């Protein structure tokens, strides 16, 4: 088949791609793509030169010249030259499927980010911390207690995957702008695969909860599912994330009320067979998580203003401004640590006073120090601070069970 003349292609509506001239014995030119003259397309052309030396057959290299960033109307072209040793390659090699272990590894990696791991870790630790509040004696931590703990952790793990999945499914176009690294937005997982994972996780969550037979656990799953479905699903009267107050209410209700109360009642009434009784330590965790969850609810939308505005999502940042909302969030986090510090000092045990006092004070100082160095114009900087908030919540969970 003859190679089309470059001049004729240019006359028919194609821009000639810049080429490199190499002095050699034999040059084969493969024109990978010609970009049409449309100003809104970004051109990326690739021209490969296989340079074959007839004088020295042992020396055989491919020199690849890649032109990137070729855009109209400024015609700025960046070229990167790479010398790559030529490897034997055939169509048979291209058809060989990936190793099954590599496929599974890639899938598990995508699933890991699909379920928002930082949220799953923090929720798991909160569940463990509140479950330990039902323990009155060391002897209560028995195989029966550990079994009861697994009964609440496993269904909520699948519920976490459902919550993250339904949010990403209905936020797919927004995430392509705000969070292009997520598995669905980046194409690492297909939309159909996302639907299958989300629906399967919901079924497994309720299935494990129903098999357990614990009504506090079942009600916790039902409330969590209902709230986060209303938060994400785009149908009339739902999609509560459009309203900043409703969005904050969902986060507050699940993290400050549903998770602590239902986990505690499951361990106290179903596992340990004790009468329902709310100790002051449970009210302390509810108070701490109230301030902290409100801070999270307001902070999470600060780096997402661009996509939220484009798709009509009214967040606190869009209404009040990023700087004001950021420092309101910092105030809520500091109030949460202040409440924890004061409650720790009311303990009758000196060593609990010392550990909790120092622990919460250190968290408050670290938070304040990082907050002062945040560049609100940098999405990466705000995102780093947001991840710090989740890490600090996870470490605080080791101090919460000491509240007595």
CATH class (first level) name of the largest domain: Mainly Alpha
| CATH architectural name of the largest domain | Orthogonal Bundle
Could you give the count of β-strands? 4
Kindly estimate the percentage of residues that lie in beta strands according to DSSP.
5-15%
Average pLDDT over all residues: 78
Q: Largest beta sheet: what is the strand line-up? A: 1-2-3-4
Rg:
28 Å
- Termini separation (Å)? 83 Å
Find the structural class using helix and strand composition. Answer: alpha+beta
Overall geometry comes to: globular
Task: Compute the number of structural domains.
Answer: 2
Main β sheet profile: 4 strands, antiparallel
Number of helices: 16
Q: What is the third-level CATH name, the topology of the largest domain?
A: Farnesyl Diphosphate Synthase
State the helicity in percent bands.
55-70%
In brief:
One of its GO terms (cellular component) is chloroplast membrane. The chain is an alpha+beta fold.
Describe this structure in words.
This protein is an alpha+beta fold and 404 residues long. The chain folds into two domains: 89 residues, no CATH class; 285 residues, Farnesyl Diphosphate Synthase, CATH 1.10.600. It contains 16 helices and four strands. A hairpin with a 4-residue loop joins strand 3 and strand 4. Helix 4 packs parallel to helix 16 and helix 11 runs antiparallel to helix 14.
């Amino acid at each position: 088949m003859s190679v089309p003349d470059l001049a004729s292609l240019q006359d028919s509506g194609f821009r000639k791609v810049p080429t490199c001239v190499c002095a050699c014995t034999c040059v084969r030119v493969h024109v990978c793509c010609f970009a049409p003259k449309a100003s809104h397309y970004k051109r990326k052309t690739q021209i490969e030169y296989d340079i074959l030396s007839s004088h020295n057959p042992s020396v055989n290299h491919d020199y690849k010249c890649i032109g990137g960033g070729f855009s109209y109307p400024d015609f700025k072209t960046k070229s990167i030259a790479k010398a790559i040793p030529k490897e034997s390659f055939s169509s048979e090699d291209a058809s060989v499927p990936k190793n099954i272990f590599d496929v599974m590894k890639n899938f598990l990696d995508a699933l890991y980010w699909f379920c928002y791991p930082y949220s799953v870790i923090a929720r798991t630790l909160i569940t463990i911390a509140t479950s330990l509040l039902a323990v009155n004696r060391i002897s209560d931590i028995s195989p029966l207690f550990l079994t009861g703990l697994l009964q609440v952790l496993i269904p909520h793990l699948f519920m976490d995957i459902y919550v993250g999945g339904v949010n990403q499914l209905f936020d797919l176009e927004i995430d392509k702008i705000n969070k292009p690294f997520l598995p669905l937005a980046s194409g690492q997982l297909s939309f159909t695969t996302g639907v299958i994972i989300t629906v399967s996780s919901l079924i497994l969550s309720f299935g494990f909860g129903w098999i357990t037979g614990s009504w506090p656990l079942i009600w916790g799953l039902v409330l969590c599912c209902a709230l986060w479905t209303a938060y994400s699903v785009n149908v009339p009267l739902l999609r509560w994330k459009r309203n900043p107050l409703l969005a904050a209410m969902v986060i507050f209700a699940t993290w400050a009320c549903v998770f602590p109360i239902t986990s505690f009642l499951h361990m106290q009434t179903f596992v340990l067979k004790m009468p329902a009784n709310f100790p002051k330590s449970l009210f302390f965790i509810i108070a701490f998580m109230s301030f902290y969850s409100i801070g999270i609810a307001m902070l999470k939308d600060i780096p997402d203003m661009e996509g939220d505005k484009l798709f009509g999502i009214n967040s606190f940042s869009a209404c009040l401004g990023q700087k004001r909302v950021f420092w309101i969030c910092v105030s809520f986090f500091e109030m949460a640590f202040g409440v924890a510090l004061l409650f720790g000092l009311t303990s009758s045990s000196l060593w609990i006073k010392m550990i909790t006092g120092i622990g919460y004070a250190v968290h408050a100082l670290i938070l304040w120090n990082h907050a002062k160095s945040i560049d609100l114009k940098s999405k990466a900087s705000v995102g780093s601070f947001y991840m710090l908030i989740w890490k600090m919540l996870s470490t605080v969970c080791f101090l919460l069970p000491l509240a007595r």
